[in-house]
Prior knowledge:
The protein is α+β, with helices and mostly antiparallel strands. Among the domains are: about 5-90, no CATH class; about 215-430 and about 515-575, CATH 1.10.630.10. The chain contains 20 helices and 13 strands. The strands form five sheets. The chain has a four-stranded mixed β-sheet with strand order 3-4-9-6. The protein has a three-stranded antiparallel β-sheet with strand order 5-13-10. β7 and β8 form a beta hairpin. It is globular. The relative contact order is 0.11. Its cofactor is heme.
Amino acid sequence: xxxxxxxxxxxxxxxxxxxxxxxxxxxxxxxxxxxxxxxxxxxxxxxxxxxxxxxxxxxxxxxxxxxxxxxxxxxxxxxxxxxxxxxxxxxxxxxxxxxxxxxxxxxxxxxxxxxxxxxxxxxxxxxxxxxxxxxxxxxxxxxxxxxxxxxxxxxxxxxxxxxxxxxxxxxxxxxxxxxxxxxxxxxxxxxxxxxxxxxxxxxxxxxxxxxxxxxxxxxxxxxxxxxxxxxxxxxxxxxxxxxxxxxxxxxxxxxxxxxxxxxxxxxxxxxxxxxxxxxxxxxxxxxxxxxxxxxxxxxxxxxxxxxxxxxxxxxxxxxxxxxxxxxxxxxxxxxxxxxxxxxxxxxxxxxxxxxxxxxxxxxxxxxxxxxxxxxxxxxxxxxxxxxxxxxxxxxxxxxxxxxxxxxxxxxxxxxxxxxxxxxxxxxxxxxxxxxxxxxxxxxxxxxxxxxxxxxxxxxxxxxxxxxxxxxxxxxxxxxxxxxxxxxxxxxxxxxxxxxxxxxxxxxxxxxxxxxxxxxxxxxxxxxxxxxxxxxxxxxxxxxxxxxxxxxxxxxxxxxxxxxxxxxxxxxxxxxxx
Length: 577
């Protein structure tokens, strides 16, 4: 039986019922005016479809409270729906709907897949000889930046990345762009789209990047106001935790004096950073929780690995690849669910955090604290191996400062000036990313030299780390470079200082608020490494660092040679008591 026949049968039953608006509990003037409808439905104005069939207006839209009136409404609804289906199934209507649907789908494909990959007009696209623009950036990012600056006389140019074109701006415009709200990294619809493509925060499992987009100010406030203050008050506790990690991860104290061991430093550095950061973020119980630490370490690695693999994947296949193909994507989803189960009980126990996405915020802190600091620490250890002449001066400074301070105090790390210069030189030679500062143009913007930045463009800056006009002999590792500059100029040459030449920590109001925590963890680890161990390169090891699309990443399988020192200038353990 068709829907029309069913509705007509139900209408026949309804003839034996009281007219609308006159049933029990719904009578006369007591009935609200907006619910009074004619008793004789056939007398109402009717509509006619293309086939000449008549149907009444949709009285089922009138709100009725009587049970009998509700039954009548059901009859009318079924009848009206059947007639609407007659119109929809008209072949000409179906053809038009299909065409509209096809146009919509093609438009969405163009907007999401084709338009974002088209270079912006008026900005030259840079590529190296014999390579296309995308391969030039992916495999030879630094050379591409140098070629662009040379070709444009240090002007604007474009690079083609896995997420489409990016305009590289000269660093002399940093001050101007820093003050321009139209280029704010966190405002506007275009910023949201850019962060989606850069970090894929809309994809399942990427809750740390989602929190970066949705809750930037609360996170910055927590790091600046709470974490940095706690760090200064917990210097001795942080040192004790780092010692515990090193004792568990590095060669035993019982090893012979001349015995060298092959050690992969990347996992050791990762464990130190994860434990120290968790101690500050969640407390002592969490920083000793092996299950949670495994989530912290593996989520950070898998989240950044997922982003890298998705950027290398064709946009049309990214949703499917993330859902079904990439093992890292499956792991981040699993780890987010695990983190949710572990963090919420901690919060409920303390009865403090009531944020809508406390799990995402914690995973964001994990992403920011663990990944870059681990990479920087690992590279610093490699630079110690490559530059053995700086080891003894660093040890002498450590001994002097610890004796002056009488142990682990909050002032120890700020007085390690040579170590500060060493770390900054290490960062200059091999930064985590050669183009780390990014902005989104939220409306058409004209700069002071007349350059027009189009709305929706992604603008990025590359540091002057290897520019000989800024840093003489840029290919030579000079551990004293920034110590000399610091003495001549100002504190802008400290490791945490901000300048337009080295922008690894960003610049302006959106500079990294966690850089003070990072430098504390780095210096603490180096103090323990240098005073407890000797280091040298392992000639049989794999390559130490890999380069891809402007990013420098440690090889987790690379090893160095390590041995315990027997004769030490100072007893670090005694200072923890």
